[in-house]
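Input/output pair, single chain:
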Amino acid sequence: MHSLLPILIPALFGLCIGSFLNVCIYRMPLGRSITLPSSRCFACGLVLPWWRNIPVFSWLAQRGRCGCGMVKLTARYPVVEILTAIWFAAVWHFHGHDIPLAAIHTAFGCALIVAAFIDIDHFIIPDEISLGGCLAGLLAGALYPQLHAVHSWWGGLGLSLVGLLTGGGGLLIIAIIGRVIMKKDAMGMGDVKLLGAMGAFLGWDAVIFIIASASMIGASFGLSMILVHRRRWGVPIPFGPYLVIGAMIWILGGSEWMAAYWDAVSVR
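Output:
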């Protein structure tokens, strides 16, 4: 049991944060404050007591309904809470030896989870997350340059800026090419800005990995939807969640996998 504490404690904390992320996912697209008013039923306005906000347990105990029993809540609520708990546990397992690094990746991952689910629901990525992420990434690079494996604030800031420009500029070029070829928008500017934020936090080499992995995962999912569910070709799907998956894979070891791949290629 003692050996599980380094994972269990972050996971429990992640469950609580996941409950707050659900508030952000619901309120941000509506332009509402994420802090006020307190949690309440969006059908009848009933203020929810604390014990109705216990992550996962409350949803199960209430059989997927709001406290008033009038509104059925989607399974997304416990899913977000569980995913956040897994994210906290995974990041602190991989990076817990470097507390500032783990804290930065944990917080950035929370923003990515919110962005992904909002994109799924509304096909938008709020500027508060994308543009705010760009600025936060630059600040993190300057304040903690070890984020990019350097030791000077100007080196960290410079690498964050290069990552931002590579991410935002690279995906913008792809979007323009897609527009020319397909005669319609291949992806939104929200994706461009989000990848810029990812580059600011994770570096230019992460951008390459994220684009490649997101494209493969997105193409596989889109093809499976066509084959299994007979979905019509050309139906738009949000690309943000696949970028988020790629970024999370990178944080949880993708950089080592990419380095091992290049080592194997160079040996040949």
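The chain has a mean pLDDT of 85. The chain has two domains: 1-97, 125-268.
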